[in-house]
Amino acid sequence: MAEAMTELDLVVGSMITTRPEEDREAYEEEKELYQDIQDLLREEGVTVDLLSQPGTEVWEGGIESFYDLYQLRRLAAHLERGDDITQVLSDTSLDGEDVDPVLADIWDDEAQTKFPHLIKHQGDGGSYLPADFPEPIWVETEPDEGDGEDGEDEEDADAVVSFGSSIRLLSELNELDQLFRDHKVPQGGYSRALDVLKMAAQQSVEHGLPIILW
Hints:
- By secondary structure, the protein is of the alpha+beta class.
- Helices cover 44% and strands 14% of the residues.
- The protein has helices at 24-43, 66-81, 86-90, 101-107, 116-119, 152-158, 166-182, 189-207, and strands at 8-13, 57-63, 127-129, 137-140, 160-165, 211-213.
- Strands 2-1-6-3-5-4 form a 6-stranded mixed β-sheet, with helices on both faces.
- It starts with 7 loop residues before the first strand and ends with a strand.
């Protein structure tokens, strides 16, 4: 049976994908990059080991569409406000071109949420770390020069990445899962996205390894 296509892939494993015995030069390049990021995170108050277990991968999964993740975030934001979610469940027009104003307020820090690691995280291209910290951290990194044909636009897009806490994410997803049950939220792509993220967070916490999304 063919595997389902996914728009967002997740891996729980080492940030360093190459073992030193496989390719010493590639390993050293990755190690230098993640050493710098580890130092930047430490400056933000997060102590985490990004260099251990190079080449290790313990779990992989995927979310079928970015829209499923978007709907999951919308449901979380509206449920915590006590809103009627009928419109959210029936609305198929908000696909990212028209942003839900409730989410926009959270992203713009004009409203608080108890689900910051779910809602305020980069998603595609971000990571979750097996460390406990209250809000996702956005880190500026130096982009590789000469990648792609779009020049500065592509470099700028790759220059900032977000790091969430898989410990906090797991707690948020457990609470959201209970809200789904309490409000009898029907099954859908968003609930499958919740299950995938929850499994990834559990594996991350259990093995002490990051979740990498792309």
